[in-house]
Amino acid sequence: MATTTQTGRAAVIGLGSMGSGMAGSLLRAGFSVAACDVNPEAVARFREAGGTAAANPAEAADGADVVVSVVVNAAQTEAVLFGEHGAAAAMPEGAVFVSSATMDPAVARTLAARLEATGRHYLDAPMSGGAARAADGGLTFLASGSPAAFAKARPALDAMAGTLYELGDAAGQGAAFKMINQLLAGVHIAAACEAMSFAAKQGLDLARVYEVITKSAGNSWMFENRVPHILDADYAPKSAVDIFVKDLGIVQDMARAEKYPVPVAAAALQMFLMASGAGMGRDDDASVARLYAQVSGAKLPGQA
Question: Which residues are catalytic?
Fold first, then answer.
């Protein structure tokens, strides 16, 4: 986590669980930060923390050296840049747009080309680490872009990142690395949910299962992170089921274009799709365990 004080003007588009933490990290580093979000409560909290509220991406981006976009997908990123009240036209020439949404690498390249044609820079910089690391400036960024884009974005990245990977000099490489991460993350969540529901079906003490597995070879970061949600019967969304419907869907699209088989990721995608179809799309992604329980009759914590 960076502790050096930086100066400059930054904009953050999107104040969800990740964006609010990233905006807070920029404020602590000494940036003047303007931000906008469709949720007025999120904007109010940001204003109380010392930031400047903006009505839309254009207003937030006006005069900013760096614009950090923390929205859900490529379509939203395109709207932030080029839609009505979009940031692109309001950004000063030479400013950098840091795109943190998970998207198809081909789309990242297209958006970068459109923005760079206007004299602004585009940094393809999806991140990983979750809300807690966003709040303490400890995110991992998987970034690619021109040297000029990196140079312009570096003070802001130093404020938000615990680890910065520089993965290439053109947009798309960062997005591709993120999709490999998301393939693994989605598979690991689905596997953890399957295992815990299966353990419940066997009548095992689930807290003991968690203790044993986290000290054994079957552990994963996702098992260790998500299983406590199951144990606590807390499915308030830290990361929603529909995020992995989107991300594993992108993996499928990329693999189909390359004629590359991804059967394990495809099976995981089906579990997230079924959970979403069962009404859990906006719930925590550990809700896949609840789907397994419904199908099998296993009893998870919190279930009658």
Answer: 178
